[in-house]
UniProtKB/TrEMBL annotation:
<comment type="function">
    <text>Functions as an E3 ubiquitin ligase.</text>
</comment>
<protein>
    <recommendedName>
        <fullName>U-box domain-containing protein</fullName>
        <ecNumber>2.3.2.27</ecNumber>
    </recommendedName>
</protein>
<feature type="domain" description="U-box">
    <location>
        <begin position="11"/>
        <end position="86"/>
    </location>
</feature>
<dbReference type="GO" id="GO:0016567">
    <property type="term" value="P:protein ubiquitination"/>
</dbReference>
<dbReference type="InterPro" id="IPR058678">
    <property type="entry name" value="ARM_PUB"/>
</dbReference>
<dbReference type="Pfam" id="PF25598">
    <property type="entry name" value="ARM_PUB"/>
</dbReference>
<dbReference type="InterPro" id="IPR016024">
    <property type="entry name" value="ARM-type_fold"/>
</dbReference>
<keyword id="KW-0808">Transferase</keyword>
<dbReference type="InterPro" id="IPR003613">
    <property type="entry name" value="Ubox_domain"/>
</dbReference>
<dbReference type="InterPro" id="IPR045210">
    <property type="entry name" value="RING-Ubox_PUB"/>
</dbReference>
<comment type="pathway">
    <text>Protein modification; protein ubiquitination.</text>
</comment>
<keyword id="KW-0833">Ubl conjugation pathway</keyword>
<dbReference type="InterPro" id="IPR011989">
    <property type="entry name" value="ARM-like"/>
</dbReference>
<dbReference type="InterPro" id="IPR045185">
    <property type="entry name" value="PUB22/23/24-like"/>
</dbReference>
<dbReference type="GO" id="GO:0061630">
    <property type="term" value="F:ubiquitin protein ligase activity"/>
</dbReference>
<dbReference type="Pfam" id="PF04564">
    <property type="entry name" value="U-box"/>
</dbReference>
<dbReference type="InterPro" id="IPR013083">
    <property type="entry name" value="Znf_RING/FYVE/PHD"/>
</dbReference>
Length: 421
Protein backbone atom coordinates (compact mmCIF):
# COMPACT_ATOMS: atom_id res chain seq x y z
CA UNK A 1 0.00 0.00 0.00
CA UNK A 2 2.79 2.37 0.90
CA UNK A 3 4.55 1.66 -2.37
CA UNK A 4 1.35 2.42 -4.28
CA UNK A 5 0.93 5.75 -2.49
CA UNK A 6 4.52 6.78 -3.05
CA UNK A 7 4.59 5.94 -6.75
CA UNK A 8 2.97 9.16 -7.95
CA UNK A 9 5.28 11.20 -5.68
CA UNK A 10 8.32 9.51 -7.18
CA UNK A 11 7.16 10.68 -10.60
CA UNK A 12 7.32 14.35 -9.61
CA UNK A 13 9.99 16.30 -11.55
CA UNK A 14 12.96 17.31 -9.46
CA UNK A 15 12.25 21.01 -10.04
CA UNK A 16 8.88 20.65 -8.34
CA UNK A 17 10.47 19.47 -5.09
CA UNK A 18 11.48 21.70 -2.20
CA UNK A 19 15.31 21.69 -1.82
CA UNK A 20 14.86 21.37 1.96
CA UNK A 21 12.39 18.51 2.29
CA UNK A 22 12.64 17.08 -1.27
CA UNK A 23 8.85 16.80 -1.19
CA UNK A 24 6.60 18.22 -3.92
CA UNK A 25 5.82 21.89 -3.26
CA UNK A 26 2.28 23.12 -2.64
CA UNK A 27 3.04 26.80 -1.87
CA UNK A 28 6.31 27.61 -3.65
CA UNK A 29 8.00 30.88 -2.68
CA UNK A 30 11.23 32.45 -3.90
CA UNK A 31 13.84 34.14 -1.69
CA UNK A 32 16.37 36.84 -2.58
CA UNK A 33 18.89 34.34 -3.99
CA UNK A 34 16.37 33.24 -6.61
CA UNK A 35 15.91 29.73 -5.19
CA UNK A 36 12.35 28.48 -4.63
CA UNK A 37 11.22 26.57 -1.54
CA UNK A 38 8.03 25.31 0.06
CA UNK A 39 6.72 28.22 2.16
CA UNK A 40 6.46 26.40 5.50
CA UNK A 41 9.96 24.93 5.13
CA UNK A 42 11.78 28.19 4.40
CA UNK A 43 9.81 30.07 7.07
CA UNK A 44 10.86 27.42 9.57
CA UNK A 45 14.48 27.80 8.41
CA UNK A 46 14.43 31.56 8.94
CA UNK A 47 12.12 32.00 11.94
CA UNK A 48 12.66 28.90 14.05
CA UNK A 49 16.22 27.92 13.24
CA UNK A 50 17.28 31.60 12.91
CA UNK A 51 19.39 30.93 9.81
CA UNK A 52 20.58 33.80 7.60
CA UNK A 53 21.74 31.71 4.63
CA UNK A 54 20.14 30.16 1.59
CA UNK A 55 19.65 26.46 2.41
CA UNK A 56 20.50 25.29 -1.11
CA UNK A 57 23.55 27.48 -1.78
CA UNK A 58 24.55 28.47 1.78
CA UNK A 59 24.90 31.98 0.42
CA UNK A 60 24.52 34.70 3.12
CA UNK A 61 21.38 36.78 2.68
CA UNK A 62 20.41 40.22 3.95
CA UNK A 63 16.73 40.22 2.99
CA UNK A 64 14.36 37.62 4.37
CA UNK A 65 11.54 38.66 2.06
CA UNK A 66 9.78 35.79 0.34
CA UNK A 67 7.78 36.08 -2.89
CA UNK A 68 5.07 33.63 -4.00
CA UNK A 69 6.13 31.84 -7.18
CA UNK A 70 2.76 31.71 -8.91
CA UNK A 71 4.26 30.59 -12.21
CA UNK A 72 5.83 27.49 -10.66
CA UNK A 73 2.66 26.78 -8.73
CA UNK A 74 0.71 26.90 -11.99
CA UNK A 75 3.19 24.52 -13.62
CA UNK A 76 2.92 22.09 -10.71
CA UNK A 77 -0.87 22.14 -10.78
CA UNK A 78 -0.94 21.72 -14.56
CA UNK A 79 1.44 18.80 -14.29
CA UNK A 80 -0.69 17.16 -11.59
CA UNK A 81 -3.89 17.71 -13.60
CA UNK A 82 -2.32 15.98 -16.58
CA UNK A 83 -0.96 13.08 -14.53
CA UNK A 84 -3.00 9.96 -14.01
CA UNK A 85 -2.19 6.26 -13.79
CA UNK A 86 -4.27 5.59 -16.92
CA UNK A 87 -2.45 8.16 -19.01
CA UNK A 88 0.89 6.94 -17.67
CA UNK A 89 0.19 3.39 -18.68
CA UNK A 90 -0.36 4.34 -22.33
CA UNK A 91 2.57 6.75 -22.54
CA UNK A 92 6.06 5.62 -23.39
CA UNK A 93 8.99 6.03 -20.98
CA UNK A 94 10.38 8.56 -23.47
CA UNK A 95 7.32 10.73 -22.94
CA UNK A 96 7.85 10.66 -19.18
CA UNK A 97 11.46 11.75 -19.59
CA UNK A 98 10.56 14.48 -22.07
CA UNK A 99 7.66 15.61 -19.89
CA UNK A 100 9.96 16.09 -16.91
CA UNK A 101 12.50 17.82 -19.12
CA UNK A 102 9.77 20.08 -20.51
CA UNK A 103 8.76 21.15 -17.01
CA UNK A 104 12.36 21.82 -16.06
CA UNK A 105 12.95 23.90 -19.20
CA UNK A 106 9.80 25.95 -18.64
CA UNK A 107 10.88 26.74 -15.11
CA UNK A 108 14.33 27.79 -16.29
CA UNK A 109 12.92 29.99 -19.04
CA UNK A 110 10.81 31.94 -16.60
CA UNK A 111 13.51 32.32 -13.98
CA UNK A 112 16.50 33.42 -16.05
CA UNK A 113 17.14 36.47 -18.23
CA UNK A 114 19.30 34.29 -20.51
CA UNK A 115 16.63 32.28 -22.26
CA UNK A 116 18.08 31.37 -25.65
CA UNK A 117 19.71 28.07 -24.66
CA UNK A 118 16.57 26.85 -22.89
CA UNK A 119 14.39 27.90 -25.81
CA UNK A 120 16.58 25.89 -28.17
CA UNK A 121 16.15 22.83 -25.94
CA UNK A 122 12.40 23.42 -25.93
CA UNK A 123 12.39 23.62 -29.71
CA UNK A 124 14.25 20.31 -29.98
CA UNK A 125 11.49 18.62 -27.94
CA UNK A 126 8.58 20.12 -29.88
CA UNK A 127 9.97 20.01 -33.42
CA UNK A 128 9.39 16.24 -33.57
CA UNK A 129 5.70 17.01 -34.09
CA UNK A 130 4.65 14.93 -31.08
CA UNK A 131 1.04 15.94 -30.38
CA UNK A 132 1.23 14.72 -26.78
CA UNK A 133 4.19 16.98 -26.01
CA UNK A 134 2.63 19.92 -27.84
CA UNK A 135 -0.58 19.46 -25.83
CA UNK A 136 1.32 19.20 -22.56
CA UNK A 137 3.31 22.31 -23.44
CA UNK A 138 0.09 24.25 -23.95
CA UNK A 139 -1.31 22.95 -20.66
CA UNK A 140 1.79 24.32 -18.93
CA UNK A 141 0.84 27.79 -20.28
CA UNK A 142 3.83 27.54 -22.58
CA UNK A 143 2.27 29.65 -25.33
CA UNK A 144 1.67 32.52 -22.89
CA UNK A 145 5.29 32.32 -21.74
CA UNK A 146 6.58 32.45 -25.33
CA UNK A 147 4.36 35.36 -26.28
CA UNK A 148 5.54 37.31 -23.24
CA UNK A 149 9.10 36.79 -24.48
CA UNK A 150 8.12 37.91 -28.00
CA UNK A 151 6.43 41.05 -26.68
CA UNK A 152 9.51 41.95 -24.65
CA UNK A 153 11.18 43.07 -27.87
CA UNK A 154 8.88 46.11 -27.82
CA UNK A 155 10.46 47.19 -24.55
CA UNK A 156 14.06 46.23 -25.35
CA UNK A 157 14.13 46.37 -29.15
CA UNK A 158 17.85 47.23 -29.16
CA UNK A 159 18.78 44.72 -26.45
CA UNK A 160 20.57 41.87 -28.24
CA UNK A 161 19.66 39.27 -25.60
CA UNK A 162 15.96 40.18 -25.69
CA UNK A 163 16.01 40.24 -29.49
CA UNK A 164 17.61 36.79 -29.74
CA UNK A 165 15.17 35.42 -27.18
CA UNK A 166 12.30 36.77 -29.28
CA UNK A 167 13.70 35.05 -32.38
CA UNK A 168 14.02 31.73 -30.57
CA UNK A 169 10.54 32.05 -29.05
CA UNK A 170 9.08 32.51 -32.53
CA UNK A 171 10.96 29.45 -33.77
CA UNK A 172 9.26 27.44 -31.00
CA UNK A 173 5.80 28.89 -31.78
CA UNK A 174 6.44 27.99 -35.40
CA UNK A 175 6.54 24.30 -34.38
CA UNK A 176 3.11 24.33 -32.76
CA UNK A 177 -0.10 23.35 -34.58
CA UNK A 178 -3.12 25.59 -33.99
CA UNK A 179 -6.61 26.10 -35.36
CA UNK A 180 -9.40 28.69 -35.21
CA UNK A 181 -10.69 27.12 -31.98
CA UNK A 182 -7.25 27.23 -30.40
CA UNK A 183 -6.57 29.85 -27.74
CA UNK A 184 -3.16 30.30 -29.34
CA UNK A 185 -4.75 32.37 -32.12
CA UNK A 186 -6.28 34.81 -29.62
CA UNK A 187 -2.92 35.23 -27.89
CA UNK A 188 -1.08 35.81 -31.17
CA UNK A 189 -3.66 38.41 -32.22
CA UNK A 190 -2.84 40.66 -29.27
CA UNK A 191 -1.73 44.04 -30.67
CA UNK A 192 1.59 43.86 -28.78
CA UNK A 193 2.35 40.44 -30.23
CA UNK A 194 1.48 41.53 -33.78
CA UNK A 195 3.75 44.58 -33.41
CA UNK A 196 6.59 42.41 -32.16
CA UNK A 197 6.25 39.98 -35.05
CA UNK A 198 6.20 42.90 -37.48
CA UNK A 199 9.57 43.99 -36.03
CA UNK A 200 10.90 40.48 -36.65
CA UNK A 201 9.77 40.65 -40.28
CA UNK A 202 11.79 43.82 -40.70
CA UNK A 203 14.89 43.14 -38.62
CA UNK A 204 15.00 39.45 -37.74
CA UNK A 205 17.40 36.83 -39.04
CA UNK A 206 16.49 34.77 -42.09
CA UNK A 207 15.24 31.94 -39.86
CA UNK A 208 13.25 34.33 -37.64
CA UNK A 209 11.59 35.89 -40.66
CA UNK A 210 10.68 32.45 -42.00
CA UNK A 211 9.17 31.45 -38.65
CA UNK A 212 7.26 34.73 -38.36
CA UNK A 213 5.79 34.64 -41.85
CA UNK A 214 4.91 30.97 -41.36
CA UNK A 215 3.04 31.87 -38.15
CA UNK A 216 1.22 34.62 -40.04
CA UNK A 217 0.21 32.10 -42.71
CA UNK A 218 -1.18 29.72 -40.06
CA UNK A 219 -3.04 32.60 -38.43
CA UNK A 220 -4.53 33.61 -41.77
CA UNK A 221 -5.81 30.11 -42.44
CA UNK A 222 -7.46 30.02 -39.02
CA UNK A 223 -8.78 33.59 -38.84
CA UNK A 224 -8.47 36.51 -41.30
CA UNK A 225 -9.80 39.19 -38.94
CA UNK A 226 -6.43 40.15 -37.47
CA UNK A 227 -4.99 41.64 -40.67
CA UNK A 228 -6.75 44.98 -40.18
CA UNK A 229 -5.07 45.39 -36.79
CA UNK A 230 -1.66 44.67 -38.25
CA UNK A 231 -2.05 46.98 -41.24
CA UNK A 232 -3.60 49.76 -39.19
CA UNK A 233 -0.57 49.74 -36.90
CA UNK A 234 2.23 49.01 -39.40
CA UNK A 235 0.90 50.62 -42.58
CA UNK A 236 2.94 50.00 -45.72
CA UNK A 237 5.97 48.77 -43.74
CA UNK A 238 4.49 45.30 -43.32
CA UNK A 239 4.00 45.05 -47.11
CA UNK A 240 7.56 46.18 -47.76
CA UNK A 241 8.82 43.48 -45.41
CA UNK A 242 6.68 40.78 -47.04
CA UNK A 243 7.70 41.86 -50.55
CA UNK A 244 11.35 41.71 -49.53
CA UNK A 245 10.85 38.12 -48.35
CA UNK A 246 8.97 37.24 -51.56
CA UNK A 247 11.92 38.58 -53.56
CA UNK A 248 14.39 36.52 -51.52
CA UNK A 249 15.75 33.78 -53.79
CA UNK A 250 17.60 32.02 -50.96
CA UNK A 251 14.64 30.77 -48.95
CA UNK A 252 11.92 29.48 -51.28
CA UNK A 253 9.85 28.33 -48.32
CA UNK A 254 9.83 31.82 -46.79
CA UNK A 255 9.04 33.33 -50.18
CA UNK A 256 6.10 30.95 -50.69
CA UNK A 257 4.73 31.66 -47.20
CA UNK A 258 5.03 35.42 -47.75
CA UNK A 259 3.13 35.15 -51.04
CA UNK A 260 0.36 33.22 -49.32
CA UNK A 261 0.17 35.82 -46.53
CA UNK A 262 -0.09 38.61 -49.12
CA UNK A 263 -2.95 36.76 -50.81
CA UNK A 264 -4.75 36.38 -47.48
CA UNK A 265 -4.31 40.07 -46.70
CA UNK A 266 -5.34 41.42 -50.10
CA UNK A 267 -8.35 39.11 -50.37
CA UNK A 268 -9.58 40.27 -46.96
CA UNK A 269 -9.76 44.00 -47.68
CA UNK A 270 -9.62 46.44 -50.62
CA UNK A 271 -8.05 49.00 -48.30
CA UNK A 272 -5.14 46.65 -47.82
CA UNK A 273 -4.69 46.51 -51.60
CA UNK A 274 -4.22 50.26 -51.69
CA UNK A 275 -1.56 50.00 -48.99
CA UNK A 276 0.20 47.26 -50.93
CA UNK A 277 0.12 49.36 -54.10
CA UNK A 278 1.55 52.29 -52.16
CA UNK A 279 4.36 50.01 -50.96
CA UNK A 280 5.29 49.27 -54.59
CA UNK A 281 3.83 45.77 -54.73
CA UNK A 282 2.71 45.97 -58.37
CA UNK A 283 6.18 46.87 -59.67
CA UNK A 284 7.97 44.38 -57.43
CA UNK A 285 5.70 41.50 -58.40
CA UNK A 286 5.79 42.26 -62.14
CA UNK A 287 9.59 42.00 -62.06
CA UNK A 288 9.40 38.65 -60.28
CA UNK A 289 7.10 37.01 -62.85
CA UNK A 290 9.62 36.19 -65.64
CA UNK A 291 11.86 33.91 -63.53
CA UNK A 292 9.20 32.45 -61.25
CA UNK A 293 8.18 28.80 -61.04
CA UNK A 294 4.71 27.69 -62.07
CA UNK A 295 3.27 27.77 -58.55
CA UNK A 296 4.89 31.08 -57.72
CA UNK A 297 3.80 32.58 -61.04
CA UNK A 298 0.14 31.71 -60.41
CA UNK A 299 0.24 33.35 -56.97
CA UNK A 300 2.00 36.47 -58.22
CA UNK A 301 -0.39 36.87 -61.15
CA UNK A 302 -3.32 36.46 -58.77
CA UNK A 303 -1.93 39.23 -56.54
CA UNK A 304 -1.47 41.51 -59.55
CA UNK A 305 -5.06 40.79 -60.58
CA UNK A 306 -6.35 41.73 -57.11
CA UNK A 307 -4.50 45.04 -57.23
CA UNK A 308 -5.62 45.75 -60.79
CA UNK A 309 -9.18 45.71 -59.48
CA UNK A 310 -8.26 49.11 -58.00
CA UNK A 311 -7.68 52.18 -60.17
CA UNK A 312 -4.31 52.83 -58.53
CA UNK A 313 -3.27 49.27 -59.21
CA UNK A 314 -4.17 49.50 -62.90
CA UNK A 315 -2.27 52.75 -63.20
CA UNK A 316 0.83 51.23 -61.58
CA UNK A 317 0.53 48.23 -63.91
CA UNK A 318 0.33 50.18 -67.17
CA UNK A 319 3.06 52.61 -66.09
CA UNK A 320 5.48 49.75 -65.59
CA UNK A 321 7.24 49.04 -68.86
CA UNK A 322 7.03 45.26 -68.46
CA UNK A 323 3.48 44.89 -67.14
CA UNK A 324 1.69 43.91 -70.34
CA UNK A 325 4.79 42.13 -71.65
CA UNK A 326 5.11 39.66 -68.75
CA UNK A 327 1.37 38.91 -68.62
CA UNK A 328 1.29 38.31 -72.37
CA UNK A 329 4.31 36.01 -72.13
CA UNK A 330 2.59 33.81 -69.53
CA UNK A 331 -0.70 33.43 -71.44
CA UNK A 332 -1.00 29.81 -72.67
CA UNK A 333 2.51 29.03 -71.37
CA UNK A 334 2.08 28.18 -67.67
CA UNK A 335 -1.31 26.78 -66.73
CA UNK A 336 -5.02 27.20 -67.34
CA UNK A 337 -5.32 29.09 -64.04
CA UNK A 338 -2.52 31.50 -64.99
CA UNK A 339 -4.11 32.10 -68.41
CA UNK A 340 -7.49 32.88 -66.85
CA UNK A 341 -5.89 35.32 -64.42
CA UNK A 342 -3.87 36.92 -67.22
CA UNK A 343 -7.00 37.47 -69.33
CA UNK A 344 -8.73 39.04 -66.33
CA UNK A 345 -5.80 41.44 -65.85
CA UNK A 346 -5.84 42.45 -69.53
CA UNK A 347 -9.63 42.84 -69.41
CA UNK A 348 -9.40 45.17 -66.39
CA UNK A 349 -6.72 47.27 -68.08
CA UNK A 350 -8.46 47.39 -71.47
CA UNK A 351 -11.83 48.19 -69.97
CA UNK A 352 -10.79 50.89 -67.50
CA UNK A 353 -7.48 52.18 -68.85
CA UNK A 354 -7.51 51.76 -72.65
CA UNK A 355 -4.85 54.31 -73.60
CA UNK A 356 -3.21 54.23 -77.02
CA UNK A 357 0.06 53.15 -75.37
CA UNK A 358 -1.67 50.17 -73.72
CA UNK A 359 -3.28 49.02 -76.97
CA UNK A 360 -0.01 49.36 -78.88
CA UNK A 361 1.85 47.32 -76.24
CA UNK A 362 -0.78 44.59 -76.43
CA UNK A 363 -0.14 44.32 -80.16
CA UNK A 364 3.64 44.61 -79.86
CA UNK A 365 4.01 41.99 -77.08
CA UNK A 366 1.60 39.51 -78.66
CA UNK A 367 -1.33 39.88 -76.24
CA UNK A 368 -3.84 40.27 -79.01
CA UNK A 369 -2.47 37.30 -80.98
CA UNK A 370 -2.77 35.05 -77.92
CA UNK A 371 -6.27 36.32 -77.18
CA UNK A 372 -7.30 35.30 -80.69
CA UNK A 373 -5.68 31.88 -80.18
CA UNK A 374 -7.68 31.43 -76.99
CA UNK A 375 -10.91 31.57 -78.97
CA UNK A 376 -9.95 28.42 -80.86
CA UNK A 377 -8.92 26.22 -77.92
CA UNK A 378 -10.29 25.00 -74.61
CA UNK A 379 -13.63 23.61 -73.51
CA UNK A 380 -16.78 24.77 -71.80
CA UNK A 381 -14.87 25.46 -68.58
CA UNK A 382 -13.22 28.40 -70.36
CA UNK A 383 -16.51 30.09 -71.37
CA UNK A 384 -16.12 33.05 -69.01
CA UNK A 385 -12.54 33.57 -70.15
CA UNK A 386 -13.60 33.44 -73.80
CA UNK A 387 -16.36 35.93 -73.13
CA UNK A 388 -13.79 38.37 -71.77
CA UNK A 389 -11.55 37.78 -74.77
CA UNK A 390 -14.42 38.56 -77.17
CA UNK A 391 -15.29 41.72 -75.21
CA UNK A 392 -11.66 42.90 -75.34
CA UNK A 393 -11.44 42.29 -79.09
CA UNK A 394 -14.80 43.92 -79.85
CA UNK A 395 -13.96 46.88 -77.66
CA UNK A 396 -10.67 47.67 -79.38
CA UNK A 397 -10.80 45.93 -82.76
CA UNK A 398 -11.33 49.20 -84.62
CA UNK A 399 -8.16 50.61 -83.07
CA UNK A 400 -6.13 47.45 -83.75
CA UNK A 401 -7.47 47.08 -87.30
CA UNK A 402 -5.20 49.92 -88.36
CA UNK A 403 -2.23 47.66 -87.84
CA UNK A 404 -1.32 45.00 -90.43
CA UNK A 405 -0.67 42.38 -87.73
CA UNK A 406 -4.37 42.26 -86.76
CA UNK A 407 -5.93 39.12 -88.31
CA UNK A 408 -8.56 40.15 -90.86
CA UNK A 409 -10.56 36.95 -90.39
CA UNK A 410 -11.59 38.24 -86.96
CA UNK A 411 -14.04 40.65 -88.64
CA UNK A 412 -16.77 38.10 -89.25
CA UNK A 413 -16.15 36.28 -85.95
CA UNK A 414 -16.63 39.48 -83.99
CA UNK A 415 -19.56 40.63 -86.14
CA UNK A 416 -18.04 44.00 -86.82
CA UNK A 417 -19.32 44.29 -90.39
CA UNK A 418 -17.85 46.39 -93.14
CA UNK A 419 -17.14 49.30 -90.85
CA UNK A 420 -14.26 47.23 -89.56
CA UNK A 421 -12.11 48.38 -92.45
Amino acid sequence: MDNHQRAPTMEFPHDFRCPISMEPMKEPVTISTGVTYERKNIEKWFLIYKKNTCPATMQPIDSFEITPNYTLKRLINSWKDGYSPSSSSCSSPTHHVQSNELVSIMKTIESTPFKVTSLKKLKSILETGDEIMASEFKKLSGVEVLINIVEQVLVDSFDFIAFRACEEALSVLHQLPFSSEDETICLLMKPECLKSMAIMLQRGSAEARLCTVSIFEKMGKADNNHWNLLIQDQGIDVFKSLLEIVSDEISRKASSCALQVLIQILKASKKSRLKAIEAGAVCTLIELVPDSTRSKCEKIMYLIKLMCECADGRLAFVEHGLGIAVVSKKLLNISIATTKIGVKILWLVCNFHPTEKVLEEMLFYGSMKKLVALLHIGGEDDSSTKERVVKILKLHANSWSRYPCFPREMKEYLGLGRDFC
